[in-house]
User: Fold Xylose operon regulatory protein from Rhodopirellula sallentina SM41.
Amino acid sequence: MGRKSVALLIETSNGYSRGLLEGVIAYVKERGHWSVHLTEQERGAAPPAWLQNWRGDGIIARIETDSIGQHLRKFRVPIVDLSAARHVRGVPWADTEDKAISKLGVDHFVERGFRHVAYCGDAGFAWSRKRGEHFLRQATAADCTVHQFESVGRYDVSYDLEVEQRRIIEWLKTLPRPIAIMGCYDFKAQQILDACRRLDISVPAEVAVLGVDNDRLICELCEPSLSSVIPDTRRTGYEAADLLHRMMSGEHVATEEPLITQPLGVQLRESTDTLAIEDGEIAKALQYIRRHANANIRVGDVLRHISLSRRALEHRFKKHVGHTPHEEIQRVRMNRIKELLKETDLSIGEIADRMGFEYVEYMAAAFKRETGQTPTEFRG
Assistant:
């Protein structure tokens, strides 16, 4: 197959889409023989002028509006859609699973002892509504009291940033505390943090806030820094590029079965680095586990730093956290290993050493027992 001309209609204005582009770039470098057309654009922007006279072989687009969808329908080339909005039917599409994203959020809050939780969505995005529905079901199943709020769509003609900010402020005033709030994406979580600042609400002591997308520019500039769910955007972009390659090669692919990737976990930062547990000894135990999980600690090490017997620790820990101290130690260690595998270039051996394993084989066996994958398979 000769060099193919591919148009990328993916905004460069947010971390999620930049991650998608990194995946496409990785595919092109490894396997693609493409001439790529990409211009800087914002989310929901009109199709670029150059597309009018473009004559190419395939398109990867984030089709977020009917306008873009109607324009792309005119092209008789393979298209892969990177949006869950589904403005163009009959083309394959890729996304991160909303149910898994919501579950990570609920689990993150429950693990920190929150029983009052909330979801703040954006009415303009179908995926936001789906996440909210999953969040409600999952948090209810976890015996949490759930509160919800939906802003006017960010790209709605009636949207006014300051008006929406005041609506969020009024909503926050009605919520019990302590409470943990999940924003549908990092921009929404940033608005919640700003509303807390205006109300002089302590974050995370009174209100813990979690975003989605792990957009580093937003998360690190927030005050306090914003914890966020990490989507595997690089893999999504890579798989979408591979799908387009197969389509341009003449392969028939399913158009209504989405290419779904799983989120990688939660990037913990200051906005949720807290424990909403009234039992002071269990809070101390959790804090010790999270600070020292890299050191290959045992339950006995935890007991030396609290004033409880092993039996009392086991009973009260399970009551407040939902599982045993040993299971919590394993959970925290495995999550740290996942982060190091996905976010660093450290070798498997270096990660094992950093996580306190005497032999890399011990870590690999423990990781596979917990996840069903070897560290190498997980890293992909």
The two ends are 27 Å apart (CA to CA).
